[in-house]
Amino acid sequence: MQRWQLLLRSIFLVILFSGSAVAVLDDGICFTLVKTQGYACEEHTVTTQDGYILSLQRIPMGRSGGVPGKKPPVLLQHGLVSDAASWLLLPPDQALAFVLADNGFDLWLANMRGTKYSRGHAYLNGDDLGYWGWSWDELVTYELPAMFRYVYNETGQKLHYVGHSQGTLLALAALPKDKVLLNMWRSASLLAPFAYLGTITSHLIRAVAENVVANVPYWLDVQEFDPYGLASIQVFAASCLKPEVNCIDFQSALAGRDCCLNAVSLVALLLHGEPSSTMNLIHLSQMITKGTFAMYDCNDENENRKFYGQPTPPAYKLENIPNEFPLYLFHGGADALSDVEDVQLLLDGLKHHNPDKLSVKFIEKYAHFDFVIGYNSKQLVYDPLMNFLTLN
């Protein structure tokens, strides 16, 4: 069988399994993934300043029960084309959300706009022009603050934040920007973190980014980036045919060769593949092709002046993160998205941070998805993370 035939067959199987799972998962995260494991769970909604209605789930106590009290709240933020289920796919004694709940934390799960659990809007629907008109800039400006304020008001306490992949980018952009939000923030733990993407070692994702940047009008017209949609299948298939890209092991080509994935959880993660906006895809692609940590580039000096008052988009400045703010970064040597060189650029931007407030753990064999569905992630990541949360 030819290489392209293997690729298309793999994509077809993913789509087939994804379609069969939708009906199972539409009843909500609490009902399908939390209460089935014996945990209490609450469904919450919050509306952002720009009108998006977001879904939050709360696990107020561990499986052994007890009385909800003044437990430290933790907000978990998933990565790109994923949802809050990514924190719940391992067995309860290994999945981060359940582990935190069982160890005395008030656990909150975030779902980004556009995911099946956060598709609502005050006056738009998913087919309206404008619904998908956002990048991660808007997630930083509107989404993160809305969720923080809601959890802070519900609990009366500052939040610990744990993000994976794009969830780490949001924190690194928000911390130096939003002083009001900072007053509600206790610490940030970042799994597979990135602020820079210019040296990613995934040839597949670099090829996709180059395609996107070269065809911005087309992607803006598509609006919704569905990972199982025709446009995404076409761009991945075209990228996989490039000589420098080897997609026979698609997972490794995408994000690096994971050492420790739970196979059942990997299938479940694929079934939870979620859309994002193509504007967000363009913004991330700009980071890859330009090596910048900056706001969305309109690719027109006049348009940039209209939005930003300058010909180029403003940079986010890591050095403006308060030096005394507690940070914990976990990264992996096999990660092809949050690669070692880009993480070093991130750490260089934090070189003036108080060393007593900045912890870094490097796991040589870990790739991008080991941090959320690795069978040994509790031992290597979650146990030290909980120690950090307890100390802060």
Automatic annotation (TrEMBL):
Record bears the keyword Transport: no
Source organism superkingdom: Eukaryota
Keyword Hydrolase: yes
UniProt domain Partial AB-hydrolase lipase: residue ranges: 33-89
Active site: S165, D335, H368
InterPro entries: AB_hydrolase_fold, AB_hydrolase_lipase, Lipase_euk
One Gene Ontology term from the biological process aspect of the record: lipid catabolic process
Stretch forming the signal peptide: 1-23
Record-stated family: Belongs to the AB hydrolase superfamily. Lipase family.
One Pfam family linked to the record: Abhydro_lipase
Keywords, sorted A to Z: Hydrolase, Lipid degradation, Lipid metabolism, Signal
A GO molecular function held by the record: hydrolase activity, acting on ester bonds
Identification of the protein by name: Lipase
